[in-house]
Amino acid sequence: MAAPSPAVLAAFEKAKGFMPLHEGLALYDAAVEAGALGLPLLEVGTYCGRSAVLLADAARQTGVTALTLDHHRGSEEQQPGWEYHDPETVDPELGVMDTLPTFRRTLYQAGLEEHVVALVGRSPQVAAFWNAPLGLVFIDGGHTDEHANADYEGWAPHVAEGGLLLIHDVFPDPKDEFTGQAPYRVYLRALESGAFTEISVTDSLRVLRRTGAEIK
Ligand SMILES: C[S@@+](CC[C@H](N)C(=O)[O-])C[C@H]1O[C@@H](n2cnc3c(N)ncnc32)[C@H](O)[C@@H]1O
C-alpha cells in the first residue's frame, strides 16, 4: 500500500478539514494507483485543502497534476449556525465563508503548490465545459441530493476506463450521518450503472473502478 511521507502526513493532519487519517491513507493509496494512468486526479470539494494535500503528493509521486474544485463558500452544513461551521473560515470584510486563502496557505506550507491546479467555481458549471479524461474523481462536495447527483453526472463520465471514482461520506445507516445520505445514494447509483466496480471500503470512503463504458 502506497503511503505518504511523514512530512506530507504532518501537513494533512495540520490542515483544517473533515477527513480522518485512515480514510486519508486509503485516498492516498488510490490516488497513487490512479496516477499511474498518467491522467489528472480531480477532487470536488477542496475546503481548506486537507485531502488535497494527499492528492497533490500522489500527483507529485506519479508525475501528474491534481485538480481541486470548490466555490469556497462552504456547503450548507458549514454555514454559520450549522454543525460544521468554523468561524475562522469567514471573510471578516464580506461576512461570508471563503476557504480559498486557508487552502492556499495549506498547500504552500506543504510545498505542494506546483502539483495542484485550483478550480474555483460551482461544480456543475465547470463540469459543463470539461472535456478531458481523468485518472481519478473524488466526490467530496455538497451533501444535498441535488449537489451529489450533479457531481456524479458532471464528473463520473470523465473517469477513464481503469480509473477510479471515490465517494466520501457514504453512510448506509441514516443514524450515522447528520448531513444526509445523498453520497450513499450516489454510490448506489454508480454501482447500479454497471460502469463501476467496488474495489475498497474504508469507513465512509468508497473506491470504485471504471469497468464499463456506459454511465446512467
Ligand atoms: C466536505 S467539504 C470538503 C472537505 C475536504 N475534501 C477535506 O478533506 O477537508 C465540501 C466542500 O464542497 C464545497 N462545495 C459544495 N457544493 C459545491 C458545488 N456545487 N460546487 C463547488 N464546491 C462545492 C464546499 O464549499 C466545501 O468546501
TrEMBL record:
Q: Which GO terms describe its molecular function?
A: methyltransferase activity
Instruction: Give the InterPro entries listed for this entry.
Output: SAM-dependent_MTases_sf
GO BP terms: namely: methylation
Keywords in alphabetical order: Methyltransferase, Transferase
> Does the record bear Transmembrane in its keywords?
no
Highest taxon above the source species: Bacteria
Gene3D superfamilies attached to this UniProt entry: Vaccinia Virus protein VP39
Which segments of the protein form a coiled coil according to its record? none
Keyword Transmembrane applies:
no
Q: Which Pfam families match?
A: Methyltransf_24
Recorded protein name is Class I SAM-dependent methyltransferase
Could you tell me which species this protein originates from?
Streptomyces cylindrosporus
